[in-house]
Amino acid sequence: MCEDAASLFAQLALNKSKAAVLSVVPGYCEPFQPIAFSNRFPPVLTEMHCPDYTQLSLNELLLKCQETVLTVTDEQAKCIEGATRKQASEKNMFQIQGRAENCI
Questions:
Q1: DSSP-assigned states of every residue in 40-91
Q2: CB within 8 A of 1, min separation 6: which ones?
Q3: What pLDDT is stored for residue 83 in this prediction?
Q4: Residue ranges per domain, the chain?
Q5: Cα gap 86→72, rounded to integer Å
Q6: Secondary structure letter of residue 2 according to DSSP
Q7: Is the pTM of this model over 0.85?
Q8: Residue 61 contacts by C-beta under 8 Å, 6 or more apart in sequence?
Q9: In tens digits, what is the pLDDT along the chain, a chain of 104 residues?
Q10: pLDDT at 91
Q11: How far apart are CA 96 and CA 100, in angstroms?
């Protein structure tokens, strides 16, 4: 990275507003990560996706599922509850949930 760009990124990082360009610059992108990717939350299920699994037979896939362990600590559960508590009062949430359940 050239000195001018490095200087610009450093100055933007000092600014209290988040400059979108920093979201893709190593060393500056951490504040842009969703809170779900922090250690306060368990792994996001989509992170467990492996394209190779699409080639497995049903029995092989079921075996992979049985081998998969997902643990959620009490602290992580409390963080999830705190972050999602207001969703139940959102007018559209039940409609969205219903659509998602119908897709499964």
A1: TSPPPGGGG--GGGGGS-HHHHHHHHHH------HHHHHHHHHHHGGGGGST
A2: 9
A3: 78
A4: 1-33, 36-104
A5: 21
A6: -
A7: no
A8: 53
A9: 688 888 888 888 888 777 888 888 888 887 776 665 567 788 777 777 888 999 999 999 999 999 988 888 998 888 888 877 777 676 665 555 554 444 44
A10: 63
A11: 6
CB 25 within 8 A of CB 41: no
Tell me how far apart the alpha carbons of residues 37 and 25 are, in angstroms, rounded to a whole number: 18
Amino acid identity of 82?
Answer: G
Residue at 39: amino acid letter = N
The Cα 63–Cα 56 span in angstroms is 10
Q: Tokens 């450093």 identify what position? A: 10
Q: Which two tokens stand for residue 99?
A: 């659509």
Q: Within 13 A of 22's CA, how many CA atoms are on the CB side?
A: 21
**Gap between the Cα atoms of 37 and 34, Å rounded:** 6
